[in-house]
């Protein structure tokens, strides 16, 4: 049985890429390789015989692909290879699906070989196979650290020290929902003006614009808080009393932002007359709902702290939808 298990630690990985600058060259990225042509050449020139499936040339990997993963985790790795062949036009989607429906190729006595190799008796093996499957999330990993260091890996990818896919794999699932939110935010002002003009007319659009400018004075408070909250919240999230601190900040911020909204609503008529003119005084009526919507949206920076740490940024779409609905 295996006595040691050398690991690529995070520190060693950084040493390899940043100091030793070891580059990994993948030849298949640069040549027109055909697995079918290579197989035909081996059969024709050396009498080679196909072993029945992807990675089945090794009996230990054959056990993992054909028995362990399908039976314990209900995971069939053939879908990767078959999907790649279908995408490249080597086989049709129907042919890939028909092959996928067949049971995995299992070499005779493969289970007995595996038990003998790992010195497992029948009882131990059966108990391990019958136990509930564990997930990679049940074990310590470097995933969170890699996610937090995305900017570093972007620089390394640009320097061709790590594959760009290494950076994009961690970035895209987190960034796409945020990109949708940013795109929606960019079009929101234009949508507001268009709807107001169509429903109320050009004159009311002018009043709405004046009121929205006053309501956006709340951004002075919101922007200041968000600038400080980001680094502060990430610096304490591992502390034992982090949840209590977040709750306290939420209460204090809600009190402060609600007070600011009420003050802004009270002084809005005077501000509008000062910044515009007396004939825009009716614009004060829209200040409160717009400021309140912005205040509710700003609270999400605290309430969605778990979303940020879990990198499930898609959940932020819900709060942004509510915010836009409030503006409507």
Walk me through this protein's architecture:
By secondary structure, the protein is mainly alpha-helical. It is about 70% helix and about 0% strand. The chain has 16 helices and no strands. It has helices at about 10-20, 35-45, 60-75, 80-85, 95-100, 110-120, 120-130, 145-150, 150-160, 165-200, 200-215, 220-235, 240-275, 285-305, 305-310, 315-325. Helix 10 (about 165-200) packs parallel to helix 16 (about 315-325), helix 11 crosses helix 13 and helix 14 runs antiparallel to helix 16. The protein is elongated.
Described by the principal axes of the CA atoms, the overall outline is elongated
Q: Structural class of the secondary elements? A: mainly alpha
| Unreliable stretches | none
Give the ordered list of helices and strands: HHHHHHHHHHHHHHHH
Number of discrete helical segments:
16
Span from first to last CA? Answer: 66 Å
Task: Please provide the count of β strands.
Answer: 0
Helix % is: 55-70%
Estimate what percentage of residues fall within beta strands. under 5%
The radius of gyration is 30 Å
Query: Mean pLDDT across all residues, rounded?
Result: 81
The biggest sheet, with number of strands, parallel, antiparallel or mixed sense and barrel status, is: none
Q: Could you outline the blueprint of secondary structure elements for this entry?
A:
Blueprint: H1 10-19, H2 35-46, H3 59-73, H4 78-87, H5 93-101, H6 110-118, H7 122-130, H8 143-148, H9 150-158, H10 164-200, H11 202-215, H12 219-236, H13 242-275, H14 287-303, H15 305-310, H16 316-327
């Amino acid at each position: 049985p295996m006595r040691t298990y050398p690991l690529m630690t995070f520190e060693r990985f950084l040493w390899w890429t940043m100091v030793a600058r070891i580059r990994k060259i993948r030849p298949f990225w640069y040549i027109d390789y055909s697995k079918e042509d290579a197989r035909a050449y081996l059969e024709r020139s050396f009498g080679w015989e196909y072993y029945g499936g992807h990675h089945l040339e090794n009996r230990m990997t054959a056990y993992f692909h054909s028995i362990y993963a399908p039976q314990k985790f209900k995971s069939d790795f053939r879908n990767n290879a078959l999907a790649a062949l279908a995408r490249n036009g080597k086989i049709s989607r129907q042919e890939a699906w028909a092959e996928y429906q067949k049971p995995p190729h299992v070499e005779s006595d493969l289970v007995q070989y595996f038990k003998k190799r790992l010195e497992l008796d029948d009882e131990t093996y059966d108990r391990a196979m019958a136990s509930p499957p564990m997930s990679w999330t049940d074990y310590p990993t470097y995933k969170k650290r890699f996610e937090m260091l995305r900017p570093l890996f972007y620089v390394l990818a640009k320097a061709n020290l790590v594959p760009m896919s290494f950076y994009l794999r961690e970035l895209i699932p987190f960034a796409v929902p945020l990109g949708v939110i940013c795109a929606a935010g960019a079009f929101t002002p234009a949508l507001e003006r268009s709807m107001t003009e169509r429903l109320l007319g050009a004159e009311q659009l002018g009043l709405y614009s004046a009121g929205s400018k006053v309501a956006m004075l709340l951004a002075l408070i919101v922007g200041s808080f968000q600038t400080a909250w980001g680094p502060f919240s990430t610096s304490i999230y591992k502390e034992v009393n982090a949840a209590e601190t977040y709750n306290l900040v939420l209460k204090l911020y809600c009190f402060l932002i609600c007070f600011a909204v009420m003050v802004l609503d009270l002084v809005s008529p005077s501000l509008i007359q000062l910044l515009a003119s007396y004939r825009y005084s009716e614009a004060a009526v829209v200040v409160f709902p717009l400021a309140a919507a912005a205040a509710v949206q700003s609270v999400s920076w605290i309430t969605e702290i778990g979303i940020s740490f879990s990198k499930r940024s898609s959940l932020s779409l819900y709060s942004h939808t509510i915010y836009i609905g409030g503006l409507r």
